[in-house]
Design goal:
The chain is mainly α. It has 3 domains: 62 residues, Single Sheet (N-terminal domain of TfIIb), CATH 2.20.25.10; 133 residues, Cyclin-like (Cyclin A, domain 1, Orthogonal Bundle), CATH 1.10.472.10; 88 residues, Cyclin A, domain 1. It is 53% helix and 5% strand. Strand 3 and strand 4 form a beta hairpin. The longest helix is centred in the middle third of the chain and has 19 residues.
C-alpha cells in the first residue's frame, strides 16, 4: 500500500515533493528520481487484520474517545450482574453479597458533590443542545468551559441550570452561532436577566473575550424559519456586505439587521413576507425591522 506524503517532505537528491511511502516494504521513496529516502519506517497501524466491520469491532482493543460532555468523560466502570464462570458454576451467596455491596458503594461514589453537579449539568447541557440544534463540538466546548468554572469555584452557591445555560450562551457567542438569550432562557426554564447575570460573571471571572456578533451569520437561521429561497439569502448577504463596507452597522441589533436585509431582499425577489413574520423569526420587534430596513433602503438608493 502506497501513501503520498505531505508537501513538507522534500527529496534530498532532486528536491521533488512527490514523496510516497510503501508500507509493504517499509520504505519512503521519491516518486520522481526513485531515491529511497528512508527504509526503516515504523508501521503505526494495528498488528491484526480485519476483512469486515464485525471483525474490526471484535479485534480492536480501544474504546470510545474521551468526551467532556459526559460526567465521567466515558472512563467509568459499571458492575454487571454476576454470570456463571468458565465452568458454568454460579457464584455462592458470600460472593454475591460482596459484589452487591461493591455495586452500592460504586453507585454512592457517583453521587458525590462534584460528580453529582457534573451529572446534573451535563444532562441539562444535552437537553439544551438538542432543543437549540447545536452541534456536538459546541456541546463539548461548553462542557470544558463549565468544568473550568467549577475548578475556579464559580458553581458554589449558584444554580446549575443557569450556569450551564450561561456557559452555552458564551460558547455560542464566541463561535458566532446565532442563538439569542431569549432562546436559551426559553429552553432552560430560567429568567433571561438571571442567565445574563451569570453570563457576565463567566466573562469576568474566566477572562473571556467575545467578538461582536455579525448580522450575516443570522441570515440563514432567519431564512430557514421564514421559508425563504437561497436567492433571497444571497441578496440579503449582498445588502449586509454593502452596509458593512459603509460602516453603518455599528450599534445596530445584528438579528434586526439580518431580518431587515431579508425583508428588502424579499421585496426585490417577489417573495411575500411581512415585517411581523420576519420579526418573529429574528426574535425582535417589527419596529426594529422597520427602522433598520429604512437605513438599508437608503444604501440601496445611493448604490
Amino acid at each position: 500500500m502506497k501513501k503520498i506524503y505531505a508537501q513538507t517532505h522534500v527529496c534530498p537528491e532532486c528536491g521533488s515533493r512527490n514523496i510516497i511511502q510503501d508500507s509493504g516494504l517499509g520504505e519512503i521513496v521519491c516518486n520522481d528520481c526513485g531515491l529511497v529516502v528512508s527504509e526503516t519506517t515504523i508501521n503505526t497501524g494495528p498488528e491484526w487484520r480485519a476483512y469486515n466491520i464485525m471483525q474490526s469491532e471484535n479485534r480492536t482493543r480501544i474504546g470510545l474517545p474521551i468526551r467532556f460532555s459526559l460526567p465521567d468523560m466515558g472512563l467509568s466502570t459499571t458492575f454487571r450482574p454476576l454470570s456463571p464462570d468458565y465452568y458454568g458454576k454460579k457464584a455462592n451467596s458470600e460472593k454475591r453479597f460482596e459484589m452487591y455491596r461493591l455495586k452500592k458503594l460504586h453507585e454512592k461514589s457517583n453521587h458525590l458533590t462534584l460528580r453529582g453537579n457534573l451529572s446534573w449539568a451535563m444532562r441539562e447541557l444535552d437537553k439544551l443542545c438538542s432543543k437549540l440544534n447545536l452541534p456536538k463540538a459546541i456541546q463539548e466546548e461548553t462542557a470544558i468551559l463549565y468544568r473550568k468554572a467549577i475548578k475556579k469555584g464559580l458553581a458554589q452557591g449558584r444554580k446549575i441550570s443557569r450556569l450551564t445555560a450561561a456557559s452555552l450562551y458564551a460558547v455560542c457567542r464566541m463561535n458566532q452561532i446565532p442563538r439569542t438569550l431569549e432562546e436559551v432562557s426559553r429552553y432552560s426554564l430560567s429568567d433571561k436577566w438571571k442567565i445574563a447575570k451569570y453570563y457576565r460573571m463567566i466573562l469576568r471571572e474566566m477572562d473571556l473575550h467575545v467578538p461582536n456578533p455579525k448580522a450575516k451569520y443570522g441570515v440563514s437561521k432567519i431564512a430557514s424559519e421564514a421559508g425563504l429561497s437561497e436567492k433571497t439569502q444571497r441578496k440579503a448577504l449582498e445588502i449586509l456586505g454593502e452596509a458593512e463596507r459603509l460602516k453603518i452597522k455599528a450599534g445596530k441589533h445584528p438579528m434586526g439587521m439580518a431580518g431587515a436585509a431579508l425583508y428588502l431582499a424579499c421585496n426585490m425577489n417577489g417573495e411575500t413576507r411581512t415585517k411581523k413574520m420576519l420579526a418573529e423569526a429574528s426574535g425582535v420587534t417589527d419596529v426594529t425591522i422597520r427602522a433598520h430596513s429604512k437605513i438599508l433602503k437608503e444604501i440601496l438608493i445611493k448604490k
